[in-house]
Amino acid sequence: MRECAKVQEVLIISGMDSIMPQGPFRDCFEWLETSHSVMSSEQFAFLIVLLWNIWNRRNRWIHSGQLIPARLVAEYAQLVHGDYEQVAENIGDSIPCAREKKWMKPGPGVIKINVDGAWNVTTRMAAIGTMVGIR
Q1: What share of the chain is helix, strand, coil (3-state, %, to 5)?
Q2: Average pLDDT of span 109-121
Q3: Fewer Cβ atoms within 10 Å of its own Cβ: the N or the C terminal residue of the chain?
């Protein structure tokens, strides 16, 4: 990811490039674990939001030919992260946080939901996938 010029631009503008750990890493999980261990909680949360926005930028570019300016991607990630921090501050420690290396069956009374979607501009077809884990 870091080798991609489009991603590097967003990382530099956001200020994350200078605090992200350097590789090599065996896989993305090792990179994420290392990032989590060297960053503050706030920095790591912002990194996750930023990665999500970089992914959305990439999808829009590939599927509709629109390349959102890197500055807007970084600014939007900061806005979303700010909203997250505000909600987290108001809720406090009432939301449990767990780090998992792989998907695990949810505990009793827990529902896990993952959603993803895609749109093909050429065929004008869409698809959505949902995975729900209930115990």
Answers
A1: 50, 15, 35
A2: 76
A3: C
d(CA 31, CA 102): 14
H-run or E-run covering 71: helix 70-91
The one-letter amino acid code at 112 reads K
Q: What is the DSSP letter of 17?
A: T
Q: Which helix (H) or strand (E) holds 80?
A: helix 70-91
Any idea where the domains of the chain sit in the sequence? 5-100, 103-135
Q: What is the mean pLDDT of residues 67-81?
A: 90
Q: Can you give the pTM of this predicted structure?
A: 0.62
- Name the amino acid, one letter, at 115: V
What span, in angstroms and rounded, lies between the C-alpha atoms of 127 and 95? Answer: 31
**16-51 per-position pLDDT tens digit:** 888 888 878 888 888 888 889 999 888 888 888 898
DSSP conformational letter for 135: -
